[in-house]
Amino acid sequence: MNKLTPILTLSLVCQSVFAGMPLCTPDNSTVFQDYLNRAYTVSNDIMGNQILTSQCTNLTDQQMLGDLTDCGALSNPINGLGLSPVDQFLYGMMPTDDRGIGTHLEVSLPFPSPGQPGDIMKANPVDVYRIGNDGGYENIGSIEPPAETIPPPGVHQVVPIVHSASTFNLAGDLFILAYRTNYESSADIMAGTGEIDYQTPHIVIGQVSAATLTAANGSIITTQWFDVDDTSDPVCDAVVSEFRNQTNVFSTCVVADYIANGDHDAAVDSCLTSSGIMNKGIHDFAISPINGHFYAYDSQTYTNKDVLIDVDPNTLIASCTEFVDMGNNTGRLTSLMFSQQNKLVALFADESTGVWIDVNNGDINPLIMPVVAQPHGDGASLPFDMMNKALGITLGLTDKVFRNGFEDFIFANGFEGGPVPATCPAF
């Protein structure tokens, strides 16, 4: 069993003009120096603007760094941010489908056809972007969905990537999420009915090595995938089972709409709106700077409670904790990030404040500092405590981060002068 491990980084600049549009490419001279206890977010609004902002992990000191669309139009929103500790670049993922659901239908006509319509659900790759502190970006390649396992006869499988979720470890390896889901399809041509029935999904964690990510130049980015046991714990099993139920409500809607109207794209669009399925499940995850575990938060699958998911990187076994949330008052999660002091900060769509979660006892604590509310967004943070332990360096929280040669590890390509004093408080 490979051991999954954790943390995060950034840089770029607009350099030239091509056909009247700025051409933005990475530039190592623009690395972020002040990022202790600081988080980064890309938010996109109804006008299609994708704003890169920075704030402290306690949500103070929010600053706009730039609009990514100033470097040219983006076909889809960039999400799933992570900050690499190796090259100081911010990395994000963009869905290759314009709906951002990670899958598409390939329907054989006529439908419904007799018996089983077949393997008609297909997972899509995601594009990977490097982003700089000036809002510059470049597409460095794409990640393919995990290989399908062999399901029982008559059962098919789809493994969509969650493009909104990513994080880094100390070595600069990138981690992403996917759902491995078996399904059965059937149809009755005489009755004019059809069905796509999903089974309980399983979380899959993908790992891209730092060397592979750094060398990526526009082709397929090699990724190792690890299946998580999310059914041994009864709370985890219940929430993924409920996610399956909600997905089947969406599926029933799509099939019925398609049979009635004959346009599967329109059916998907209509049912995405009516079912609210895009709000459910896991939207982001982060790695604790203390124990190295992966933490995810499902705030919408249930209407009366939220679920914190904890995945042990050594055993790949998930354990879950429920929190009462009558009426889904916490909203749809957009971002999770750990502070230096191991506080799990959560931001929610269209909410101007966030919360932090104590992963030791499950307490949820409001953050009163307001931030700009956005319908979509994702954040990344850099928990330095983990780095210090891994490097064998003993530093107090008030000490400078770059000490005793630590700067050579982070800024391998050169970094003039001493470290920039942190502007964010320890949190």
SS field, number of helical segments: 5
Largest sheet: 6 strands, antiparallel
Taking the alpha carbons of the first and last residues, their distance comes to 34 Å
CATH top level is: Mainly Beta
- Quaternary status: single chain
Strand % is 35-45%
Shape: globular
Mean pLDDT: 78
Derived structural class: mainly beta
Number of strands: 26
Radius of gyration: 22 Å
Count up the domains: 1
Instruction: Report the CATH topology name.
Output: Tachylectin-2, Chain A
CATH architecture: 5 Propeller
Helix content: 10-25%
* Low-pLDDT segments, ≥5 res: 1-22, 382-417
What is the element layout, followed by pairings?
Layout: E1 13-18, E2 21-25, E3 38-44, E4 50-56, E5 63-67, E6 79-83, E7 90-95, E8 103-105, E9 121-123, E10 126-131, E11 137-143, E12 156-158, E13 161-168, E14 174-188, E15 193-198, E16 202-208, H1 210-215, E17 224-227, H2 234-261, H3 264-275, E18 285-287, E19 294-298, E20 305-311, E21 318-324, E22 333-338, E23 343-348, E24 354-358, E25 364-367, E26 376-381, H4 384-390, H5 406-410
Antiparallel strand pairs: 1-2, 3-4, 3-26, 4-5, 6-7, 7-10, 8-9, 10-11, 12-14, 13-14, 14-15, 14-16, 16-17, 18-19, 19-20, 20-21, 22-23, 23-24, 24-25
Helix pairs in contact: 2-3
